[in-house]
Specification:
By secondary structure, the protein is an alpha+beta fold. The chain has 9 helices and 13 strands. The strands form 5 sheets. A 3-stranded parallel sheet has the order 1-2-10, covered by helices on one side. It has a 3-stranded antiparallel sheet with strand order 5-9-6, with no helix packed on it. Strands 11-12-13 form a 3-stranded antiparallel sheet, with no helix packed on it. The N and C termini lie close together (11 Å).
Length: 247
C-alpha cells in the first residue's frame, strides 16, 4: 500500500519507520529538514562546541516511556538530570531558584510571602491530577480548569500562564486556551524522588539523525507543504504546494 505521512517531526518519522517494512511510504514536510520541533544547533562558546536546543530540550522519563524505549532500540545512551528552576518575575526583584540551593535562596523565599503563596498554589496545581482522565478529550482549557479549581486570577496571570508558556516555548497569551490535559500529564507524572529529565549529550539532533538513518526505504519530500488531501473513489490524493498530485 502507498501511504503518505504528513509531518516529519518525531511522530511522523517514527510512523514512517514502523510502516516502511510492509508499505511504500512517502514523508512530507513543509520544512527542508527532519525533526520538526526537535532542532539542535551547534554553537561555539570559548572554543567549545555545544548543542543549543531551539525546541524540545529533554523528555520526562515517566511521561514518555515509548520514546525511552525507542532510544534504547536506536542505541542512544540517555543521561538523566533532576529538575531545577529559576523564575524571574515580571515585576522585578531577585530571581527565585527552586528548589532553594543555598541558605540565601531559602531566606529570599521565606521573606517574600506573596511568592511563597504563589508557589504553594502551583504545588497544589501540580498535584491536582487525580482526575486526569476526565480531561483526556482535550476539551477543557488551562484557563477554564484554573477557574473551575478556584485558582486566583492573579496567580494565573503572574505565575501559572507565564511559567507553563516558558516551559512549552509558547506565547503567554495562548496558554489560557491550551488543553489542560497536555499540561497535567507532564506536571503530574514527575518522579517525585528525582524529577527525572532525560537528554542526550550531543543534543536531541542525535535522536533525529539515528531515526533518519533507519528510514532507508522512505521517500523524503522535504520543503513540500501539503496543500490538500482529497478523496478520489477509493484513493486519497495528496497535493503539495508545487501543484504535484500523488495518490
Amino acid at each position: 500500500m502507498r501511504i503518505a505521512v504528513i509531518g516529519a517531526g518525531i511522530s511522523g518519522m517514527a510512523s514512517a519507520w514502523f510502516l516502511q517494512p510492509a508499505h511504500d511510504v512517502t514523508l512530507y514536510d513543509k520544512a527542508d529538514r527532519l525533526g520538526g520541533h526537535v532542532h539542535s544547533i551547534p554553537v561555539e562558546c570559548n572554543g567549545v562546541t555545544v548543542q543549543v536546543e531551539t525546541g524540545v530540550e529533554f523528555f520526562v522519563e515517566a511521561t514518555y516511556p515509548c520514546v525511552m524505549a525507542l532510544w534504547r532500540v536506536l542505541g542512544l545512551r540517555r543521561r538523566k538530570a533532576s529538575a531545577t528552576l529559576t523564575i524571574t518575575f515580571r515585576d522585578g526583584g531577585r530571581p527565585l531558584a527552586l528548589p532553594p540551593r543555598s541558605p540565601r535562596h531559602l531566606l529570599q523565599l521565606l521573606l517574600s510571602p506573596r511568592r511563597l503563596g504563589q508557589l504553594m498554589l502551583f504545588t497544589r496545581f501540580t498535584r491536582s491530577t487525580d482526575e486526569l482522565t476526565k480531561y483526556a478529550d482535550l476539551a477543557v482549557s488551562l484557563g477554564e480548569y484554573a477557574r473551575q479549581r478556584g485558582f486566583p486570577k492573579r496567580f494565573q496571570e503572574e505565575m501559572l500562564f507565564p511559567l507553563i508558556a516558558a516551559s512549552w516555548g509558547a506565547p503567554v497569551a495562548d496558554m489560557r486556551h491550551f488543553p489542560v490535559y497536555d499540561v497535567l500529564k507532564i506536571v503530574g507524572r514527575f518522579d517525585r524522588a528525582g524529577y527525572t529529565f532525560c537528554f542526550l549529550d550531543n543534543g536531541l539532533g542525535d535522536y533525529i539523525n539515528a531515526l533518519a538513518a533507519e528510514l532507508r526505504s522512505v521517500e523524503m519530500r522535504l520543503g513540500r507543504a501539503v496543500k490538500e488531501v482529497r478523496k478520489d473513489g477509493e484513493l486519497f490524493l495528496v497535493e503539495d504546494d508545487r501543484g504535484e498530485v500523488r495518490s
